[in-house]
Amino acid sequence: VGPPHRVVDLAGTLALVAAAARRALLSALVERVRDDSSATLDLTAAAEAVVDRTTAGGADADPDAVADVRLRLVHVHLPKLVENGVVSFDSEDGVVRYRGDADVEAVLASLAGLRTD
């Protein structure tokens, strides 16, 4: 993965994780890095991870949701994450790669600690 890219300010970090889909995607990528050192997800797996983390039934309950999330990832969420250097996205291969960001990871960990489920 290399050295973590740093988002410059807290407001920028919070803006990146403000959307549930971005939080879910980043959390899935961070977990992959911790579990098996793989910092990548293909676009479909990324969309499934977002649906699994943001809906009660997950990707199995609503396959159409995966297609909708995939579209929103490509047109809304991935461009914002790429612009801020947190992920790279190869549109030809459909691969999302986490580049690492200690501030984003700290905010995600703090938010996970606030969950009451």
Summary, kept brief:
This is DUF7344 domain-containing protein. Residues 18-97 form the DUF7344 domain. With 117 residues, the chain is mainly alpha-helical.
Estimate nothing, just give the exact number of structural domains: 1
Uncertain segments: none
Which overall shape is indicated by the principal axes computed on the Cα atoms?
globular
Question: How much helix, percentage-wise, in residues?
Answer: 55-70%
- For the biggest β-sheet, the strand order reads 1-3-2
Structural class: mainly alpha
Distance between the termini: 32 Å
- Relative strand content: 5-15%
Q: Helix-strand pattern, N to C?
A: HHEHHHEEH
Note the main sheet: 3 strands, antiparallel
Number of helices: 6
| Radius of gyration (Å) | 13 Å
Number of strands: 3
Q: Tell me, rounded to a whole number, the average pLDDT.
A: 87
Distinctive features:
3 strands; single chain; mainly alpha; three-stranded antiparallel beta sheet; 117 residues; globular; 6 helices
How would you characterize the overall build of this protein?
With 117 residues, this protein is mostly helical. The protein has one domain (10-112). It contains 6 helices and 3 strands; from the N terminus they run ααβαααββα. The protein has helices at residues 10-16, 20-36, 43-54, 58-61, 63-83, 102-114, and strands at 40-42, 87-90, 95-98. It has a 3-stranded antiparallel beta sheet. A hairpin with a 4-residue loop joins β2 (87-90) and β3 (95-98). α2 crosses α3 and α3 (43-54) packs across α5. The protein is globular. The relative contact order is 0.23. Pfam families: DUF7344 (PF24035). This is DUF7344 domain-containing protein. Residues 18-97 form the DUF7344 domain.
